Amino acid sequence: MSNWSLIIYCGIITYLTRFSMIALIKKEMFNDRIREILSYVPSAIFPAIIFPAIFINDSGLFQIEDNPKIIAALIAMIIGIFSRSILATIFSGLASYWFLIFVV
Amino acid sequence: MKSNLNVFLKGIMDVSPLMIPVVPFGLIFGVLAIDIGFSPLETMGMSLIIFGGASQIVLLQLFSGGASSLVIISSVGAVNSRHLLYGAVVSEHLSDLKLIWKIIISYFLIDQAFAISNEYLKKNKQSNKYFHLVGGGATCWVIWQSTTFLGIVLGEAIPDKLGLSFAVPLTFLALLVNDFRKLINVVVIIISGLVATIGFNYIPFKAYVIVSALIGLFTAMILTKVIKK
Lengths: 104, 229
Prior knowledge:
The structure holds two protein chains of two kinds.
Chain A: H1 3-24, H2 32-38, H3 41-55, H4 68-83, H5 86-103
Helix pairs in contact in A: 4-5
Chain B: H1 4-19, H2 22-36, H3 40-49, H4 53-64, H5 69-80, H6 82-94, H7 99-107, H8 111-123, H9 131-154, H10 167-175, H11 183-199, H12 208-228
Helix pairs in contact in B: 1-8, 1-9, 2-4, 2-9, 3-9, 4-5, 6-8, 8-9, 11-12
């Protein structure tokens, strides 16, 4: 398969994941119970992106010792909980990560 | 009622803090794609046609590892299957729109735009509130395309020692800060995160994202039922 066909197929499948539910689901299908469960979608998806990015290293192995990302993420989380600010969370995490890899 | 432009601008404003980590992410993608052997045109094509950061990085990883096209396409689909859930959540607010708007908005249904507009759509009642999602998505589109381009042009001039890829999980962490205060959310977060970490190497086709998300949602379904009684 050429690179371009690969890219286009990946694009089509990605677009379909975005479009299908919007196209298929009707307003009448919603009730309070479904709304309640769907309100947990961010809490259910985002950790699946966050955790591996922190705990799995570049070689694909689980790494808990000597891993500055864990500490930096914890600091970012604590700052985030108290500040409720997206920017403060991101910057405190990056700043502590840089401090840990460049200074300590 | 607020004008369409006002709502669109509000979407831009709300999404802008989330755009800061997208900058290094886009640069890294551009640099990596060229490094692996894609042409500049193909690299731009990926960002324009797929327009999904995490899945584009997965594409590169698998491609450089010599995976077959079928594996790459299904992995991209699995990583992006989280949009099915985003679509399900926002569809309630979009169901009265014309098909052409559904087609356009779908292209912009990305993590960051979903995260900020999900709240906005729930709180607001006016009929043009979907412009918020378009504003957030379009902002991300501009940043993603321009940083991909910069990554292609700047190439090796960007030091990878900075660990800028760490900005990506931090963005998603920042999107959850309000959920850390609620017990059920915390349990769902931990379960989904653990399943993803353990499943990362064992669940085929990078489907760990959607598998963890569904297990997380299932947990929420049980907990909300048990705790209410």
